[in-house]
Amino acid sequence: MSLNDFSRRDFVKLSLASAFGVSYSGWLPKIASAAEAAKEVGGAKHKSFILLWMTGGPTQTDTFDLKVGHANGGPSKAIETAVSGIQISEHLPGVAKQMKDLAIIRSLTTAEGDHDRATRLMLTGHRPGQEAVNYPSLGSLFAKELGDESNDLPHYISVSPFRFGDAGGPGFLGPNYAPLVVSGDSSDPEARANLSIENLKAPAGVTKESMEKRFEISKFLQNEFASRAKGPSTKAHKANFDRAMRMIETNAKGAFKLDEEPAVLRDKYGRSQFGQGCLLARRLVERGVAFVEVALNGWDTHADNFNQVKRLSEMLDPAWSTLMEDLRERGMLDSTLIVWMGEFGRTPKINGTTGRDHFPVAWSTVLGGGGIKGGQVIGNTGDAGTEVKDRPVKIADFYATMCAGIGVSPDNENLSPEGRPIPLVDRGGKVIEELAAVPEKKKA
Amino acid sequence: MFFNTRYLMWVFALVGTTFVVAAEAPPTKQAASRLTTEELAHWIDERFAEAWREAKIEPPGLIDDATFLKRTSLDLAGSIPSVSQARDFLGYDGEHRRGNLVDRMLNDPKRPEKYAERTAAHLATVWRRTLVPGNSPEARMAVGLEPWLKEQFNANVPYDEFARKLVTATNNGQPQMVVNTRLGAINGGPTMFFQAVGGKPESAASSVSRVFLGVRIGCAECHNHPFADWKQKDFWGMAAFFAGIKNGAINDSVAATIRPENSTVDYTAAFLTGEPAKIPRDKPPRETLADWMVSPSNSMFAATAVNRVWQHLLGRGMTDSVDDLDKASPAERKILDDLARLFVDAKYDLRWLIAGICKSQLYQRECIVLEETDSEPPPGLRPIKTLSPEQVFNSLEQALALPVAKADGSARFNGLRDQLIARMNEAATNNPEEFKAGIPQALLLMNGRLTTEATDLDQSRTLRGVLDAPFLDTESKLTTLYLATFSRPPRDEEKKFLLDHIRKQAGGDKQKQAYAEIFWGLLNSPEFVLEK
C-alpha cells in the first residue's frame, strides 16, 4: 500500500465525516505551488509579520546608532545608506541599500536590564510580574490579528527561538496561538540549515510503510472511540491528530525543504541557520502564516564586542537584505512587516574586556516593510549615546507603532479568561505617526 | 535480549499473578452525626433522579467495571491502572468491589500500590492547578506548592483547616526563594501560593476570592463589576487584608488598609458581605479573614469547595462556572448548598466527600453523548474529560512500564517527564471539558522519545513483556496491550481488525512490528488521552 492509497482512502472517509468539521482542502496544493499560494489564502492578500529577534541584546552603537568620533564609538565605522543623511554600520552594507524601506528608532527607552525580564517585556509589551494577567506574546497577538482560520498551517512559527527568557507563549490566548517551533540545532555545517519541526520526522528505523500502518490503526481506533464517545473533545482530538498527521505526510513531500529554492538565492540569504531561517520565513509567509520569528543568538557581547558584532553582522546583513529584496520582488513587501529587535541595547561605554553590557536606557530597533514609511530616523541619543535627547519612545509607543505598521489598531482588544478586555497595547501607547498611519479600531 | 529478575517480574505483573484483591469488607457504619459515604451516594442519586424526572431526562446507562476502574484510577490516583490491577479487578465479582476500590484508593497506605499516597499526590496537582491556573512563569513556579499540598491531603486535613492554613500562611517577611521550575520537587511551602499568583495584595485578594469563595472580583480592581453586584470597595476591602504582602514577602504587622495606585482613597479591610472587619491588635489581619471565610455561616465557602470536588470528579461543576458562583441558577445553587451543608456536617472531610460521589450511581454513568446541537449537558451528567499533563505522563509511565527509580535513569528524573509536561502545559486548561492540544503536542506523542522507545522492539519493556511471554497466544498478547493502555480487553470488532493486521504479516520480526504498530496506535488514540 502506498502513501497515496492511504491518503485517498482517508480523504473519502473524511469527506463522509464532514460532521467532524475538518477541512481537507487547500493545504497540499499550496505546498506544491508556492506562487499560487499567496493569492489563495482568504481571497484577499494576507498580511504577515516577520520578527528578527536578536537574542542577547544587540549593540546599537555598532549597528544603527554609531558614535563615530566619540570614545564610546570604538572602532566601528559608518557608511552612507540609500537615504542621504542616514548612516549605519559598515558591516551592514546590504541593509544600507534597503534604507528607503526601513525606519530606525534610536530612542527606545525601557526599564528592564535583566535578560529574562527584558525578553518578557519586549515580547509581551508588559513588565513581568506586575499583574496577574498572563499576557500573550507579540507572535500570538499578531497570529490572532492576522491569522487566517482557513489556513491549515499554524499561525505562528518560531525558527530556532533560543532566548534568554521565558517568553514567546500564547498567554491567555491559548494553544491555538502558540508557536510551532522549527529547530535546526545541529552544529554540523551541512545539516545546520536543515530546519525542521520538532518531532516531525518519524523516528529512525521506522519505515514509511510502518508509519502508514500506524496511522491506519490510529484511524480505526479513532473511529471506534468516536462511535462510542461523541463530544467536542473527541472532535478536537481528531482534528488535531489529522493536522499533525498531514504535517508529517507533507513534510515527506518536501514542505519544509529549502532545496526547492534556487541555489543562487540560498547563497544570497547566506548558508547560516539564520540566513536559511529568513528564507524559510519568506516561504511560510507566502503560504499564509501570520507571524514568523527568526532568531539570531550571540548578541550578549560582554567581551570582544567588535569582533563578535562583525561576525554576527555578516550573517544578519545578507539574510535581512535578501529577505527585503525577495519580498519586494514577489510583491509582498507592503503586506509584510519586518521588525528587528532584541531584549535591550548595550552600554555605550566600552568595558574593560572590550565589551558592552546591558543597556535599556536608550537603544535602537528597526522597522520595515508593511505600512512603514521608510527612510527615517526617530529620536537621537546625542554624541555619547548615554541618554535619549529627543523623542523618547516607550514600550507601549513601540507596540502601537508595530500595530500601525501592519494596519492593526492598537485599541483592538482580547478578552482575558476573567472576562476583562485587554487592549493589544497598554493604554497610553501612541503610534509614532511619522512612521505609520493610525488604523481604525476593529468593529466588535 | 537479556533476562534478569526485574524483567521476569514485569512479565508476571503483566499477566497478573502478583496482586491480590483485598478481602471483601462490608461498608462500615460511621458515627451518627454524619452520613456514611454510602448514604451520601444514595442522597446524591435521589436528588438527581428527582431532577431528571422533572426535566424528563433519561440518564445514560451504568458503566462496566473496566471503565469504572480506569475512571477512578485516573480521578483519584492520577494514572491508569497497571495491567495486573486491571486483570485482578476485572476477574473479581464481589458485591462491594467498586465501593471498596474507592475506599482503598483514598485510604490504603500499603505497599506496593501506596494508593493513599498516590491519591494525595494527584489531589495536590489538581489543587495546585486550581490555586494557580495558567502557564505563566509565575504559575509554573507553583509546582513548589505540591509537596505541602500533598502532606495536607495525605493527612486528610479537614478542608476548612486546609484553607485557613493556606490563607494565613506566613514567611516572616521573607519571600520564598524563586524556584527553578525545572526542579519542581522543591518544597516551597504554602506561602508560595501568594508569590505564584503575583505577590501583591491585589492578586492575593482576587485569587483567594476566586478559589475559596467562587467570587470573581478581579474586574472590580479597576471598575465596578459589570454583571454581578461587586463594587470596587469590595475588591479593595478584601485586598486590605493582604496589605502586608509585597513582592511575595508577607509582613503581618502592616495595618489592614490599602491605597490603590493613582488614588487618594484608603480602603480598610472589609468582608465581601460588606461589613467592615474588626481586627484585634494581637492578631494578623488574615486570621480575621480566615475566621469569616471558613465559618459555616458563610455559604460561599463550602458550596465552592463542593463544586470544585464535583468538577474534578465529574468533569464539570454542579454549576458550570466553578470560579464564579454568581452565575449559578437558583436550582443549581439549592442543590449545591444542600450538599455543602452535608459536607459541613461531615467536618469538611474531603475523603468522605470524594468517596460519596464516587460511590454514587451518578458517578458511574456513561458519559453524555453530545451532539452538535446540544449547548449544555443536563445537570449531573459527565462530559468526556481531557487528561491533565501529569495524568498523561503518569499513564504513559504505567503503560510503558517505565522504571521509576532515579538510578535506573527513569523518565521522572532524566528530563523526559519535564519535557513532556512542559509541552503539554502549553495546551492545558483548568477545564477538563476542553481538549486544547495542538500540533506540537500531537507530534510529541507520535514521534517523541518516549513513544519511540516504547514502540522499539529492543527497548520497549511492555512490548518485550508481551512478545516474549511464552504462555500468551496472539489474542492474549493483544488483550495485554489493551489492558496496558485502555485498561479493558478489546471489543470483538477491534479484535477482528487488529488480529487480522497481525496475522497478515509474514511472521518473525514483521509480526513483532505489527504489535509495535498497534501499541503506537493505542497510545495515540483519543481513548488514551481522554477519560470516558
Description:
The complex is a heterodimer of chains A (444) and B (532). Chain A has a single domain, classed as Alkaline Phosphatase, subunit A (3-Layer(aba) Sandwich). Helices cover 34% and strands 15% of the residues of chain A. With 444 residues, chain A is of the alpha/beta class. Chain A starts with a helix and ends in a 21-residue tail after the last strand. Chain A has helices at 3-16, 27-32, 34-40, 93-97, 115-124, 138-146, 208-228, 232-252, 263-269, 273-286, 305-329, 395-405; strands spanning 48-55, 78-80, 87-89, 102-108, 156-159, 180-183, 196-197, 291-297, 336-342, 345-346, 358-359, 363-369, 376-378, 413-415, 421-423. In chain A, helix 7 packs antiparallel against helix 8. Chain B has helices spanning 5-15, 37-55, 65-77, 83-90, 97-107, 115-131, 137-141, 146-154, 159-167, 192-196, 201-213, 232-241, 285-294, 299-314, 330-345, 350-359, 389-399, 416-425, 439-447, 449-454, 461-467, 474-485, 492-504, 508-523, 526-529, and strands spanning 245-246, 249-250, 257-258, 267-268, 385-386, 530-531. Chain B has four domains: 20-105 and 364-380, no CATH class; 132-294, no CATH class; 299-351, no CATH class; 386-531, no CATH class. In chain B, a hairpin with an 8-residue loop joins strand 3 and strand 4. Classes of the chains: A alpha/beta (444), B mainly alpha (532). Chains A and B meet through helix 7 and helix 8 of A and helix 7, helix 11, strand 5, helix 19 and helix 23 of B.
Notable characteristics:
heterodimer, A: 444 residues, alpha/beta, Alkaline Phosphatase, subunit A, 9-stranded mixed sheet, two-stranded antiparallel ribbon, 12 helices, 34% helix, globular, disordered N terminus, B: 532 residues, mainly alpha, 4 domains, two-stranded antiparallel sheet, 51% helix
